[in-house]
Amino acid sequence: MPDQKHTIKLTVAQAIIRYLTAQFIEIDGEKIRVCGGGFGIFGHGNVTCLGEALYANQEALPLYRGQNEQGMGFAAAAYAKAHLRRRFMFCTASAGPGTANLLTSAALAHANRLPVLMLCGDTFSTRLPDPVLQQLEHFGDPTFGVNDAFKAVSRYWDRITHPAQIIQSLPAALATMLDPADCGPAFIGLPQDVQGWTYDYPVEFFANRVHRIRRQAPDHAEIEDAVDLLKSAKRPMIIAGGGVQYSGAISELTDFAETHRIPVVETIAGRANMVATHDLNIGPLGVTGSDSANTIAEQADVILAVGTRLQDFTTGSWSAFSKTAKIIGLNAARHDAAKHMSATIVGDAKVSLRILQDALSGYQSPSDWTANAQNERVKWDDYVAKNTAIGNGPASYAQAIGVVNDNCSPRDRIVAAAGGLPAEVTANWRTLDIGTVDVEFGFSCMGYEIAGGWGARIAQAENEPDQDTIVFTGDGSYLLMNSDLYSSVLTQKKLIVMLLDNGGFAVINKLQNNTGNESFNNLIADTPTATNQVGVDFEAHAKSMGAMAETVTNPADLADAFARAKAADNSYVIVMKVDPYDGWTTEGHTWWEVGTPHISDSERVTQAHIDWEATRKRQRKGV
Which CATH homologous superfamily contains domain 7-211? Predict the structure, then answer.
């Protein structure tokens, strides 16, 4: 017989939710639930059991009703990013297509190292009613189903087939999501029958627990090796990635750079590690970067890469650096620290930078090197000022970015994702305050913008309710996923959406043209099957979902429209057409490896391949 004094009988679903309500984290001296709530769309796979448990706990774990499961996952990822991975949201979806819709957002969270908990319906563990609605049957393996697809895009994966399993599974999932080295999405499959089964759970399992983010100290020998390399440097450079913010190491990075007078460049995820006016902020690096950062990257002899996974848009497909440059990877994750045979410092950035700074005492970068880097930044700032100026050619992304930059509040949060806008924001945005930019380019996922903006706004409303969340999206991404504009209206989580219409997928059309190809199937005007060239009334569409909206005809009218959006108490969409061909930022790009046809009937395509490959000579081959 179970010990009734020390156990409590609950369903699996009730136990999961009770456990989540008892998990806390300490942030700035305040204990707060580590799970901020969840996003849910109910179906037969989660409504009866998990829905019952959530109803009883809706004050502790508020449930936001999504419009699309993929959008829910994007919102949860953006929420976690805004909270610097110290808090997360769960997503619950029904068995079958509802859960399958979360695959893309799980991949986005995985690529960006973001914690999201997925509590998803599954087929019946007993198999008595098989095959059930929406079940995929694999004739040779009845255990294999849609949910197994999440193994490729989850850091932790489990399927609960007995109620006792959650006693092990839930703590393991939380440990994964809160681990700086292994952070990412956790997936728990919940068979429809198992969700409702009961078990006498230990009362102790539901005791309040306060979690803390691990801060791993670096190995002494790795610090010594890094110090030797840095002291030998004549042209050192720091790459500051998103991990700097997740570690809370902004002040340590700044102190380190200032003490040793080392120029700093930022990755896309690391935008807003420093304000634009800091004298050691030399600009964004890489394919979507700046001439200033890329110029010094070519010349640097020792590179300290802090909190970055060094993806190809940062490294210019490993062509941005000298082949002889030495790289030191400082990262909580060994996998990221050791890339391209880097010397490694495996440890927390906040702790490791302090130790490294003390060990490097007395060293400063040569003054002429630092001054040269600063001069390059001045030239880049001049270019950006001209590039974003109203009247500098046809209406462009850059001009719209410049207007918003000039008129937003320093703590407003900027959200952008795949397409041309993340590149234009990365290159042209002048950071006004720390940690205010979310450019999702880890998975480069169209559709993240508005859903991610909604999730970011939920987080922002908890900490900075008087600030705005500003979303930059193109017409292509808007058409792909816009329904969470309605979510923002329903939940009174105001967004300002800059909807810049260039007539299709213009940035991919640009790549198509740059590789010698004719425009085909990217711009709506160049889509042969689009025989009815009808435009979308984006303003009317936004208004139909309850948002406020207006259309401006040129960047000169944008500032007044933006002021109206700032003053509004509801989500507000500003629509403006931009030129799909001209107005792109033309400076600041490194080489990027793109697969091109080795042969073609088109002379332009063949020549473009030859020209592209001719620039490969700077690419590092793994060393």
Answer: Thiamin diphosphate (ThDP)-binding fold, Pyr/PP domains (3.40.50.970)
